Amino acid sequence: MQSTEQPRLAPRARAVEPFHVMRLLERAKTLEAEGRSIIHLEVGEPDFPTPEPILAAARAALEDGAVHYTPAAGLPQLRERLSRYYAERYGASVEADRILITPGASGAIQLVFQALLEPGDEVLICDPSYPCYRQVLRLLGVEPRAVAVDADDDFQLSAARAEAAWSPRVRALIVASPANPSGTLLGREQLAELHALCRARGAALIVDEIYQGLVYDAPDHSALELAEDVYVINSFSKYFGMTGWRLGWLAAPQAAVEVMERMAQNLFIAPNTPAQHAALAAFAPATLEILERRRACFRERRDALLDGLRRLGFGIDGEPKGAFYLYARLPDWVGVDSMQFATTMLEEVGVAATPGHDFGCHGAERHVRFAYTCDLPVIDEALGRIDRFLVQCRSR
Amino acid sequence: MQSTEQPRLAPRARAVEPFHVMRLLERAKTLEAEGRSIIHLEVGEPDFPTPEPILAAARAALEDGAVHYTPAAGLPQLRERLSRYYAERYGASVEADRILITPGASGAIQLVFQALLEPGDEVLICDPSYPCYRQVLRLLGVEPRAVAVDADDDFQLSAARAEAAWSPRVRALIVASPANPSGTLLGREQLAELHALCRARGAALIVDEIYQGLVYDAPDHSALELAEDVYVINSFSKYFGMTGWRLGWLAAPQAAVEVMERMAQNLFIAPNTPAQHAALAAFAPATLEILERRRACFRERRDALLDGLRRLGFGIDGEPKGAFYLYARLPDWVGVDSMQFATTMLEEVGVAATPGHDFGCHGAERHVRFAYTCDLPVIDEALGRIDRFLVQCRSR
């Protein structure tokens, strides 16, 4: 074994930022290994296991020897099933061959970004938003053009703000509904305005619907109801409870599909086969019944955490009607930034949350994301601990 | 639903070429649907199912609820197990934290290309070679600099040829052993020379070992025996019989791992969880026994197909000692190019093979790739049909 010089990594690769929450997660694990009780409100993953009918379908697929490659765009019957799901649940007409099954929403993001964008292009994204957008864009030499959104806009992008932030190099605009980290929804009208703007400017509208189905006290929509020429990212991870299976999909305009299919052949070969067979059971009535019960649980948790945090003095001014996140503004009197706040809260009372810095710059130092991916009694316990922590903060 | 204009796809995306074999595969399916018997010698996938101990591990993982995200670089115990595998089987010291588990070798290719290369860079690749290299490179704005290799070089790149083809923009060199489409191996000495050349020029050496273990009449090696500063792509797909599970790995120099792990977080989140637990059983003695029996089968098939094709007048001058491919030069008197040959052979005698055009330009029109991914009696039947086809060709 010879010693090695420093490898010459590409500057773009070196520039990829770590998720701040990873450091917290590691520290949390260390504390747990030392016997400390840690409550995890930082995790972007449902605590529920994959529903039993999906697991049963996976077992049956293994029994049947479904372990070989599928077509690059996925099992035809799964694409058909998704097409029916859009028709039945959203009244949207999305032909099966406009749907490409991908390795997670991550695969869909790579596919759509690489299909639409070239180095030097710009993409409008919300600040705050899901961190991977801007990291993956930068890896591709594309500049994410962040538009500050806050509680006044319900943390969503308006056509007016998008227009104000536009540049001649903007080739696409990405929004999410429900959004991460805020859990807010994008109204149909607001979406229609963004779509009209994109169409007028010759840009693509990309809508991330990975939290679709996890919507409370509001109707659930898809951007695919609106028009054919939107690119919709989705996944079996969140509503369907299949995070570890890494299965997502992309709905694209008909005219883009052939190119994307060729790209998928080269980038992925195909998505995971047992996962695709398992996902065929995701739309069965027995599965949907389980998922709807879970949705009711998530709503209860949201209500408990929202009320509790507001009572403790956190500002949650938007309407977090979806996903499983609350993006909470620290009480004004807290004299530290959100990174310091999250770090100390973990050390002192064993509650983990994600500092705003993972989602962008705008207001990041004043916000923390709490995920309600644990049971009501745990949320109550967490609120008690946060209360104690705030008392300690005040007394300093 | 509104009608849509032609979407503005990125020129690079539009430039991704389809695999020619896909058109043949589609035609083969149509013929099969019409009741025709088709022999598939075009498929780059073992016909064997995933070994039972791996399936059993997958079932147990589902039973245990292993359906949540793993760390981005994969299950620590799988990385440890691979590290031991390198030590035990290849006498190579590869620390577990130098191994990143990826969504197939495809994920490893994306990770290593994006980590090392920027637009405008060049990469030396063999012509012929695995088509995805050049497609993925071009998507990233990197120019694949093809070096013609042929039977005289055993279809492998020599340091002399690499040096002759070098340009100031070359930042990496990718070779494969065993290689696709030729099935030839890269000698240790030849590899050491390429490594020395890369080191002297400050370029990275990337070695694709996806067919590792599928080696006949020759010792099985890993480039990781040689040095720490090579990037090795591998997969559970071929030797381990797990194609549809989409699980691979990348071994990288220690100093590159942290950046790559951050990239993996953003590009993939994590590899498929059940597949990772299943793969833990890939190294069990019971599994390896099955795999070694299969290897013996592949060797018998290779011998039968190699002898048969040579008897029919195909030129196979290299030493195809690995993978499950033969890259056969059409008999000189055949008056059509390999694309036409493959198309007509499929139509007339129902044998599917891959035209050389999928692997590059050099000699592509004179070569066809045959995969021995079917049983001996089927290979015999295929040889009989090809014989009949050649007789028909002669009589025209």
Brief synopsis:
Two copies of one chain form a homodimer. Chain A has helices at 11-14, 20-33, 52-63, 76-90, 104-116, 131-139, 159-165, 188-201, 254-268, 273-279, 285-311, 338-349, 376-394, and strands at residues 39-40, 99-102, 122-127, 143-148, 170-176, 204-208, 230-235, 248-251, 325-329, 351-352, 354-355, 367-371.
Provide keyphrases for this structure.
homodimer; 396 residues; alpha/beta; Aspartate Aminotransferase, domain 1; Aspartate Aminotransferase, domain 2; 2 domains; 12 strands
Tell me about this structure.
With 396 residues, chain A is α/β, with parallel strands linked by helices. Chain A folds into 2 domains: 11-49 and 287-391, Aspartate Aminotransferase, domain 1 (Alpha-Beta Complex); 55-283, Type I PLP-dependent aspartate aminotransferase-like (Major domain) (Aspartate Aminotransferase, domain 2). Chain A has 13 helices and 12 strands. The first copy, chain A, has helices spanning 11-14, 20-33, 52-63, 76-90, 104-116, 131-139, 159-165, 188-201, 254-268, 273-279, 285-311, 338-349, 376-394; strands spanning 39-40, 99-102, 122-127, 143-148, 170-176, 204-208, 230-235, 248-251, 325-329, 351-352, 354-355, 367-371. In chain A, the strands form 3 sheets. A 7-stranded mixed sheet of chain A has the order 2-8-7-6-5-3-4, sandwiched between helices. In chain A, strands 9-12-11 form a 3-stranded antiparallel sheet. In chain A, strands 1-10 form a two-stranded parallel sheet. At the A-B interface, helix 1, helix 3, helix 5, helix 6 and helix 9 of A face helix 1, helix 3, helix 5, helix 6 and helix 9 of B. Chains A, B: Residues 38-386 form the Aminotransferase class I/classII large domain.
